[in-house]
Design brief:
The protein is of the alpha+beta class. It contains four helices and twelve strands, in the order ββββββββαβααβββα. The strands form two sheets. Strands 2, 3, 5, 6, 8, 9, 10, 11 and 12 form a nine-stranded mixed β-sheet that branches. It has a three-stranded mixed β-sheet with strand order 4-1-7, with no helix packed on it.
Length: 202
Amino acid sequence: IAQLNITADDEKANVFIDNEYIALAPLQKHQVCAGKHVIKIKGPRGKYETTVDVKKNQALNIDAHLNPSLTFMGLVASPDILKSDLDKLTVEINENLSKLHNLNYVDNSQTGDRMVVQENLRKILDGIKTNTPDKDRRSAIQELCSSAESDLLLIGYVPKEKLQRNVEFYLLSNWSSMADLRSIQVFDASDWKRFMAELDYQ
């Protein structure tokens, strides 16, 4: 038997050990078998994950600093693009993003009044394309972050002529009116590998 003492910088953080829910952090003198264990800590706005190898009678302290959540807000496209085509892209995007290791991935691509959400996303993207900072756009992004309970948002834009090949991803943060832009061939594994490596660091 070994012991784990776990604290986190989020008072609503849930502790999972080997994919089994244990309790809210902090967790003191929790007994586990000696050996390897996967520790996951998730809160509304973040995630922490590590693998530990504890020895018999060892008491291990883990002070977790949660990495932010990344919320996928969905795809923006022209009205004449078929919904079935967008759905195929969305499924592929979610399958890849759900493999993020450090970031707490949340899929909001189907939530809320999609007509209203799409219009808000389109206005933000149109403003970003001017390539100049804007305090009103920053306020709109912050409002979106607040409603999604996430500090990082990802929006996909589908140019009609490149449908089913390229999606332009806009990564928005709660602290800026600008975006980080990446163009990804959604069905290309090497493109995803590069993109995920850029997203998923501690």
